[in-house]
Structures are given as C-alpha cells and as structure tokens.
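Dissemination and training. As part of the outreach component of the grant, students in the summer workshop were shown how a complex can be specified as a set of sequence lines and then modelled as a single object. The example used during the hands-on session is reproduced here so that future cohorts can follow it. Participants entered these lines:
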Amino acid sequence: MRGAAGTRAAWPAALVLVVAVTGGCAPGTPDGDSWRIDAQRAVSDAAAQVHTVELALRLHGRGRVFDRYLQTVLLDAEKGVGTASDAIGAEQPPRAERKRYDTVTGQLDEAAGLVATTRIAVVDRETDRYDALADRLAEAGEALLELEDELQHPPVASTGAG
Amino acid sequence: MTDDDRLAAALDAVLHLLDRQVVDVDGLLVCKVDDVELTEFDDGVLGATALLAGPAALVPRYGDDGYGRILRDYWHRLGGQQADRDDPYRIDLALVERLGSGVELSVPRDGVLVRQGQRAKRLNDLLQMPVQDRDGLPVGRVLDVRLEHETVEPGERIRVTGLVVGRGRPGSYLGYDRRPDMGPWLVSRILRFLHRHSGFVALGDLDELDWEAGVIRVHEGALRPLVAAGS
Amino acid sequence: MKKFFAVALGILTAIGGFVDIGDLVTNAQVGARFGLSMGWVVVLGVLGICVFAEMSGRVAAVSGRATFDIVRERLGPRMGMANLTASMAVTLLTFVAEIGGVALSLQLVSSVSYLLLVPFVAFAVWLILWRARFSLMENVLGLFGLALVVFGVALWQLGPDWSRLLHQLAVVDKPGDEQWRTWAYYAVALFGAALTPYEVFFFSSGGVEERWTAKDIGTMRANVFIGFPLGGLLSLAIAGSTAVVFGPLDASVDTLGQVGLPVALALGKIGLAVAIIGFVAATLGAACETGLSVGYSIAQYRGWQWGKYVRPDVAARFHLVLALATILATGVLLTTVDPILVTEFSVVFSAVALPLTYFPILVVANDPDYMGEHVNGRMANTLGTVYLGLILVAAVAAIPLMVLTRMGA
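and obtained this result:
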C-alpha cells in the first residue's frame, strides 16, 4: 500500500476541509438574526430551568421528592440560568435589537435572582415559603415563554407599534 | 475452532500467520506475531524459521513513508543509546505446536522471548516490494507470501513456495481475493473488484529477487490466477 | 433447572446492563424535545447492536479471539493502530462520562458536589476492575440496573395519551417547530448511543473472560435477542416519561435531576429512590465496562495478557493500563467539565468510530477458517451489510451535523 500512503496522508486534510466548509456553511444568518436566535435559545433554556424548579418545588410539597434531590435540582437550575444569562449578556447586540436586549437581560436577571432566592430557601429548608416561590416561578416561567414567542419575529422598527 | 493445524499444510503468511496472537502451553497470552524471520537454506530454498515480536519488529511494519517513517525515527530517537534497539524478540518455529486462530506454543511463556541477535531477512522486507516484468514495467507489489510445510531430512521446515502479487489496494489482508465464496456478498464483490489484478507467482518463476535494491523481476505470464492456499 | 436459571440470569443482566449514561441522557433529551417520534431510531439501533453483538459473541465463543485481535489481524498494524487510536479515544471519552454519571447520580442523594465524589467513584471503579470477579461484577451491577424498570412503571402511572404516543412512534416525522437537520442530529446521536463501539469490544472480550465455547452460543443468543431489546424498551420508557412531563412545558432536559422528576411525579419518593439506584448501577456498570474496554483494546492490539480471568500479576500491563485510564478520567472530570456535555460528545463520536469496529467483525464472522461451520448465515449477512451501510452514513454525517446544529441547540 505504498502508493496509497500518500493519499492516506491527504485523507485527514480532506476531512478537515470538509468539516471547515460545512461548518462555515452554518445557516448564513446576518448578524441581527443570529442574536435573535441566540436570545431565543437563552430564554428557552432559562424557562426550562424555571419550570423545572417549579415542578420540583410542587412535587416536594406533595411529598414526592426528598430534600437532597430538591437541593441538587436547585443547584443545577441556578447554574443553568446563570449560564444562559451570561451567554446572552456577553453577546454584542445589533443596534436594532438594543431594546430587546434590555428586555431579555432584564428578565433573565430576574429569573436568576428568583432561582437563587429559591435555592437559599431550599438549602435552609424553609418549606413554608415553597408554595409562594412556586407561584412566582410559574409567573416568571410564563413571562419567559411569552418573551420567547416574541423573539420569533424580527425586531419591529422603533417607530412602529410593539 | 477448525481442527487442522495450518502449519502442517499450506498457508498464506500475512493472512494466516502475521499479526496473530501467540499463546503458550498453559493458555496464557505471550505476544503477537509482529514479523516472521526468513532464512535462505543451503539448497537455495527460502524458508520461514522463526516468529519475531516486540517493537523492534513492529515499528518497521508501519511502512517506509509518511507516518511510518516518523514513527521509526521517533522509535530510534527514544532509545539511541541501546545497541539492540533494532533487535526483535524471537520464537523459533520449532516451539510452535499448532496454528489455529492463534499460534499455540509447546512451552510456557516464561523467558520464551529471546533477542534475535543478528539481522536476518524478514517477511516485512518482502511485503510491498515492487514486482516488475523483464521490461521494467510494474506488475504489482508483494501482498502475501505463500508457505508450505515440507519434510526434509533430518526434520521439517516451512518453505516459501510463491508470492501473492497485486496492486495493494485497501483490504488486501481480508482474504476475499483468495476465497470467492466468502460472504457477505456485497463486501465480497467490492473487494474482489478492487483486487481483480491480483495473482500468484511461484518462487521458481521469479527471474530475480533483489533484496538490497528491493525489487523482484518476473517473466511474462508468471502471474497465475489466485486460489486459496492449499487448494 | 439450573440451566434455566443461568439463562434467566444472563437475560436479566443484559436488560439491566443495557442502559448507560449516554442512553439516559440522550433518550431523556430526545423525549422532552421530540416526544416518541424518534423511537424508531432506538428500535433501529437496538436491532443493530443485537446483530453485531451476536456476531462478535459467536466469534469469541468459536475462536477464543476477541474483537481487537481481529481488528489488527484483518486490517494490519497500520490501519489497526488508526482504529485503536480512534476507538480508544471514544471509549476513554465514554469512560469519563460514565464516571461523571455515577458521581452525578450520587450527588442526587447526598447533595455533596459531584466533584468531590469523582475521586471516590474512580477509586471504587478501579478497585472493582482490579479485584472483583468478572461474573460477579456483571451480575450484581446488571441486576441492580433493572431498577430502571421504574421508568416503565412511572410512564404507565402517568397515564399518557397512549394512542398519541404510539402514533408518534410509528410515523417517521418531526414536531412542527423543529428543523430537519436538528432532527437528523438527534437521530445520529441516538443511533450512536445505542450502538456504542465499546459494547462490542466488551461483549466479545467478556465472552473470552467467561470461557465461552461453541456450546454457549445458544445462551449468548438468548441474552442478546431477548435481553437487549428489553433493555431498549427501558430507553423508550425514559424517553416517554420525559416526553409526558417536559414536553408540555416545552422544557429541554440537561441534568440528571430533571430525568428523575417524572418518576417522582408518578411514584413519589420510593420510585425516585429506585430510579437513583438504577442510575448508579447503570452508570457504574458502564464505567467498569468502558474501563475494561480501554484495557482490552490496547492489550489485544499489542498481544499482552489481558483479562480478569487470570490473576492481576499475570496480566500486569493490562491492569496498569486500567489504573492509568482511571487516573486520566479523574483528571479530566476534575477540570469541572460538565459530564453531561462529555456524554453528548461521546455519543456523537461513537457514531463516527462505529465503522472501524463493525467492519472487521462482519468480515471475520464470515471466515470459514475462523468459524468453521458457525459462519454467518444469510440473515446475519444481509442485516450486517445493511447496517454497515447505515453506520457509514451515520459516521459521515455525525460531525457535520454536530457543527451545523451547534450540538443540537
């Protein structure tokens, strides 16, 4: 296979080329759209974490989850919301999206704060607060889902109605 | 496991012997057959005389170009101060009891691997050697070496009876070029198509086997159709 | 009667040992996102692993040779080395993911950070690999892995719309709000999770460990053809339960804690405890299997004595490799990389490495010199060839899809 050895060296190079080309062909999104998609993803992830925490709290209220499990779920969720919030917060928004950037980061920060408050209550076993926290989480989750839907559309022009 | 001992009949060195697991008399694993030692006997016969093992035998098998050469250079660099860096371990064929799916020895494995001591010809030297006809045109490369058991006074030996020559495309170690009936059907068809130029050259039909230059010359019509060893 | 119990034990162990962290995570993610519309991929994957496990088990039983012996023999040392490097990289990645999985599962009951648990888990894995008898390890962990049946019970208890679930399972379609390339990415990931390369190394080497002969082929086939599909059903149950609970919430599943919540909802604390036992057993079993597979691959390539069927001092190099692999895995996990992320990478790269492993097995299972009268029949060959084609497609598509969809985001 001596003749094939030269082509064998070319295989990895060809493979890298294919991967680079296909990677570069990731949907050719203009800047505005890529921010919108990333924002949607971040909001969706945060919503998932918020809903998970709400579900876990309510299950605990019905005696279906034990304390340590709940604690771990909370810690994971807090980390998840934090990651989503940091990721989209660090991305430079295009001019057209400045307003929505503020809304998104604002809501994500609120969600992160709420989850942190819940985590503190859970670690300290303040079970009497769980129901109220679950309700607040439900609201926050709904708001995040609405925001996710709104992010389906491109930004409206600043003079137009919302 | 098929009950016949391959070494008692005819076999293809690369297909049936090379890279096989060596097992000792107690069933413990010893090494792999990294290469095979070839000896030129007094009556001009070329024969297989020992199994070679160890990195000194394995590293040259990675080829002479590209990664193979880099690996070999690195191997030497890591142990330049050792005089026996290129000296592989050796197991004499007389210690081999049987060749089935692995090589079974007749002795326990403690201390069975001994350094070869002197550079002898190896199977790897023959493999991939270019084969040319009398006009210097390429016929192919050596893909495999056919061996056959022979009883010769006072004992027995394994002699080289011929070479399997072909274009050296991928899949030459799979054996499809020699066994047309081996399944699965699609794989067999593809591989047999890739190896349609392969053939067998008897040792007696060689014009010249130049070990130093690394080339083999044959005359026209020396390439015969390929059949399974021993058939 | 004794034979019946032996066969039953083998089947139960196969069921319990089927699911690993890759199956857990991927099925849970896919269930939450796609419902059971990817169920057919699981079925396809399970059938594939049955076909190739049976082949590799038959080869081990008849010839006493395990998969990597065959890879080197048939592909030569050069291609064999490429194969070894790729397979070992994937298996090591999976090993890291499994140990991480055990630590994450234990975190759910102890609320100690999983990072603190990793060194202890790794030590436990190494101890088992060094000391425990092979069959004991397999049987105990496999039987405890049966605890994952709780997902099937939970799904039943949740009372989902069965006709809708079955409709999703039967029709090859995607939910409206997802794109085809994301669907394709998850299909490849599920395929890679079901058809893990290490499974074949482990199964054939395990056959040599347990000294199978041609007489054991029947039992082996029972384990494979009954045990693995039932294990696959567990995967579907996991997907189904996350589909029912997280689907309506439109929530993605990224943590092991989320995976257990459907069971908590349906069965309460006891169900949850059983599920966690299942997590620990499945991941610990898989950690032992992947660790051993790393050792098997290297030892079988180089010709060293391997296996737990001999005393550790007789297989010194093998055990040294196991120890080093465990230390390496611990090191990787202590960099605080997310084990779930490692799992997601491992299933995709598993899909890429599959052809390297399966092709030599298909060839050797057909070789009459090796197999005598036990060569592949027409059914095995047809299925084997079809799957080889599927595997090649998945292998080629895996990395581009991963890049294009940014890991299924």
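The two ends of chain A are 68 Å apart (CA to CA). Students were then asked to discuss how this feature might be tested experimentally.
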